[in-house]
Structure formats: structure tokens, C-alpha cells
Amino acid sequence: MEIIHVSAECYPVAKAGGLGDVVGALPKYQNKLGHVAKVVMPMYRTPFLYNNEWELVHESGSYLGSTWFKYAVIREKTNKLGFDLYLVDIDGLLDREKVYGYEDDTERFVSFQIAVVHWLNSWEHQPDVVHVHDYHAGLIPFMMKYCHGLQKLRNTKTVLTIHNAQYQGWMGWEKSHYIPSFDNWKSGMLDWENTINPLASAVKCADLVTTVSPSYMEELRESANGLEMLFEFEKGKCVGILNGIDNEVWNPATDPLILANYSIKTVQEGKAKNKAEICKAFSLDPSLPLFIFIGRLVGEKAAEILPYVVGESVAMHQQQINFVVLGSGETELEYQLTELQKMIPGNFGCYIGYNEKLAHQLYAGADFLLMPSRVEPCGLNQMYALRYGTVPMVRNTGGLRDTVIDIGEPGFKGFGLVFNHATAFEVNESIHRAMGWYAEKQDILEASRKKMMAIDHSWERSAQEYLELYKS
Fold it and tell me: Is pLDDT above 90 for 59?
């Protein structure tokens, strides 16, 4: 089976969030299972582009409305990611350093999608499945089915995976001419509430729709940023498949980015060495419990409560607790956290920005991971934490609900701490509870660490589920 993944992100080429991790791993594991999975994405000007060898595989041009643009498709020569990687270049639109955040993002991603379908339509054969990810590729199922001149693609099956339904790619109908010509009576397949909505269009037009966890699929029928009725109506073709993690990248026994490698048998001493290194870097006391937050500093992650949570917890526990925050996002919040580090330097450290190596080191050295997310379709951070023996502290939502069982469940079958609301009060209560476990029940905590490290959240399982979905 040949599967073409189309995405705006793919780690390590370009990543802004969990989407990049998924697209960087799922195709590799599908190939390991004996299939041919490929990735097509924009050619951003990132270090990966300049540090690898490429070959030109296609050149052509198409229209974005009345504007003609040329595009090129290049392929990474060595298959170093475990799958064929293709980059689409469009001068003036995709030749940027960042993935998102430009005023012309609509034009950038629509032109990218047009180039992709135009290129696929030129193939002598057709792939079995075109698997699109989020709204950035959401117009592709519509184009393949209904746009003139793409007849070769009409019978190719399409799958949409929704990584975050909050972002939908809305564009006014005055930009409808951007899309290759189609019969006007099909315009309803693009529309949602009098706006062209690429995500809604993909839900309508794709043959199957997946989300990145079963619980998130259920939640979308009640909270989907305006698309609730659509998910209720289309529920027959929707399924939740829990994301996996790349066990080759996220493995404390072999991870080259951490100071001391360790296994389930050596987790206690291994984490102690890594913790000492992290605490040294941030001038913290390694004898104190270390809580971390890794992620975007935005409302979805409830990040705005962090300054209060940290300050209150440090005061409540009389400076016998440490925190480190790694992330970037809202400017005001970045400023607050930077200032807080100056106020309580012995108990709090922060790194504003993206740092993959530091993230690995934090998972390896921390005792607890905070994830008070308001929205968490799947969440990968809690799976990374489990893999590294770091206790996840999560809100009961989305994929967090599917992957973390509270340590206080009868018989101590759990391995994390779960709370119900993304409020400073509940997070601080959970931290207080964690401090009690850390001080009084180290034996149960150590048993939980070994239990969580043995859980299989690898991509082998998830990749097989996707393949069964394709076959259906």
C-alpha cells in the first residue's frame, strides 16, 4: 500500500507542535510494517534543508486565482528519516524560516495544496491513500473530488487526521477564486457558516476522519470551535486513534541528549544524575522535588496560570520545591515568567524558546510534569514523561484522559495525578498532593515509575491501527 502524508510540519524538518512529531514518526513505522509511506510538506528555509542532500523530482506551475506561480518538488536523497520526504518550493510564499504566523498564511497554504494535487495528478500511477493532516492540507480532499482537471485523483481515497480542531483555516468567500475551478453547486462542501472552512471541508469530503485520541473524538461533538454539529452528523466515518511516540527517539536507555542513560532497573540512580545536571544549569537544589512544564505558553495549555501557581506553591511549601518552565508563546506571559525567575531564582528557572535537547534533559531529570491543558487532543508530553519515569500531572481531558490513570486509584494501579479543572487552585492542590507522595510514599512512587516506563505507547500499535483503517 502506498500512502502519501501531506502536512505543514514534520520533525525534524520543521516543527511547531505535536503535529510535527506525529508526521515525523507515523510514516516511518508504516514503512517498517511493509508499506510505502511518504511525506510531502512545504520547503521552509530551516537548517534541515541546508544540512542535507536533495534531488529535483518535478517542476511545473499553476494558478492561485489569477496569479501564476511556479513550484518545484525536491526529495531528500538518503531516506534518513525512514521514509521518502518531499518538499514543495514556491518562491515568495513558502521560502520562509517559520512555519506559521505570516499575514499571507492563507495564500501560502492554499498554493501549497494546489501544487501537491497538481503534482500528484501528473503521476503515471496513483497512491492508495492521501492522508492529510489538519486544516493546512484540508482543501485537498475537496480538490481531489471536485476540481476540474484532476480526474486521475477522483477515485483515490483520502483520510483526514485532526490534531487540533481549534484551528480551521477560515477564509472569506472573496478568496474562493484561489481554489481551482469547480462546479458552483459543490460550494456547500467548502462552506461552514458562510465562510470557506478548510477543516470543515475536509471533514465533509474525506473518506474517513480520525482524531489523535478516542476521548478527543467524543469531545469534538460537544466542543469543536463551532463544528460540533458537523462532527455529530459525520460521526459514522470518524474514529479516534491514539498517537504513539517514537521509541527510538524517546528512549532513556539510549538517548544521546541526556547526561546519564538509564533503564527501568536503574531509573532511580539515572534520574538522580540527570536531575543534578538540570538543577546545576538552573541553580536549583537537586534534593528538592522538581516540577516541569514543557509546551506552548498559550491559553489552550492553561499556561497563564503558571506564574501564580509557581509563586503560590513556592511560598506554600516554604521554598522546598523547584520548578522549570520551557516554552514560548504569549509575549506578556513570557515576560511574567522571566521576571518571576528574578524574584525566586533559587526555586524557579525558565527557558523561553524551543530547545529539543533541554526538553529531553528535563523529562529525564524531573520528578513531575505539569499539563493543566484546557484542550489536549492527544498530548505527547505525558507519554514522553511516562517513558522517562516522570510522573505526569494532568487535567482530565482528551488524550490525557486516555493515557494517565490516577495513582490513587484502588490497588494503586495508577501512575499519575489527575485533576478536573484548569484552575490555579486545582493545580496547586495537585502539587500539594504530589509533595505528599514525594515525601511520604517514595516506595509507591518508585514502583509507579517502573510501571509507567513499561507502558507501550510506541508507534507500532498506532501505525497498525491506521493501516487497518486504510484497508477498510
Answer: yes
In this prediction, residue 439 carries a pLDDT of: 87
Strand-pair category, 67-76 with 84-89: antiparallel
Please give the distance of CA 455 from its chain centroid, rounded to a whole number.
20
For residue 192, how many other CB atoms are within 10 A of its CB? 20
Cα–Cα dist 38/88, whole Å = 13
CA distances from 392 to 82, 190, 198, 211 (A): 30, 40, 34, 22
The span from the CA of 399 to the CA of 18, in Å, is 12
At 411 the pLDDT is: 65
* Residues facing residue 157 across a β-bridge: 129
Whole-model pTM above 0.90?
A: no
C-alpha cell at 107: 495564500
Task: State the pairing for strand pair 208-211/157-162.
Answer: parallel
Q: What is the DSSP string of 338-377?
A: HHHHHHSTTTEEEEES--HHHHHHHHHH-SEEEE--S--S
Reference 110, options 193, 175, 14, 45; nearest CA is 175
Cβ atoms of 163 and 135 closer than 8 Å: no
pLDDT in tens, 39-51: 999 999 999 999 9
Sheet holding 238-240, edge to edge: 54-64, 67-76, 84-89, 36-42, 2-6, 129-133, 157-162, 208-211, 238-240
Q: Tell me what percent of the residues of the chain surpass a pLDDT of 70.
A: 100
